[in-house]
Amino acid sequence: MIFGRSERGKPPVEPVTLKILVAGGFGVGKTTLVGAVSEIRPLRTEELLTEAGRPVDDVSGVEAKHTTTVAMDFGRITLREDLVLYLFGTPGQERFWFMWDEMSEGALGAVVLADTRRLEDCFAAVDYFERRSIPFLVGVNCFDGAPRYPVEAVRGALDLDDDVPVLLCDARDRESVKEVLIGVVRHAMALAAERRQAVTT
């Protein structure tokens, strides 16, 4: 099936649409991740970094970065003919965090993208989703030349609960990103099932 059409003789399928947030620190690869997997041309709201922003935009470790997201990235991916994900990439800098509450409204779950060279940059996103009980997983973006650590070492460094998935990924690679998004959906569904069971018992 092509999105929006159905095979001859079969009724059209009305897909379920789910909202996934992609969060993390400045320069961690959120825009790249959304662009790698989106089946539509992603909506981007990037602006050039300026001298005026130098005191608040720490580019240590990402010196080659010349632009920054100032509102959001938006993309779409069809996982199955009846399941479509809408991706919303959040801005990473603290001065844009006021937008997160609105963006997270109705979200099924989130990806917190992490860079092992600047792991502390994703603490705020982890804290945000934990406080609001929004299911999330941590995707460790394996940058070229960045140190590689076992998943459990990353979990310990971020002080994550045992049930929070941690996956290694390449934000540039479509198949790698798809595995991360599937992981978010599965994790959110499992938590929802646990909550339903807790209510009925």
TrEMBL record:
GO terms for molecular function: ATP binding; GTP binding; hydrolase activity. Signal peptide: none annotated. Gene3D superfamilies: P-loop containing nucleotide triphosphate hydrolases. Keywords: ATP-binding, GTP-binding, Hydrolase, Nucleotide-binding. Belongs to the GPN-loop GTPase family. This is ATP-binding protein. The keyword Transferase does not apply. The keyword Signal does not apply. InterPro entries: Gliding_Motility_GTPase (IPR052705), Gpn (IPR004130), P-loop_NTPase (IPR027417). Pfam families: ATP_bind_1. It comes from Streptomyces spiralis.
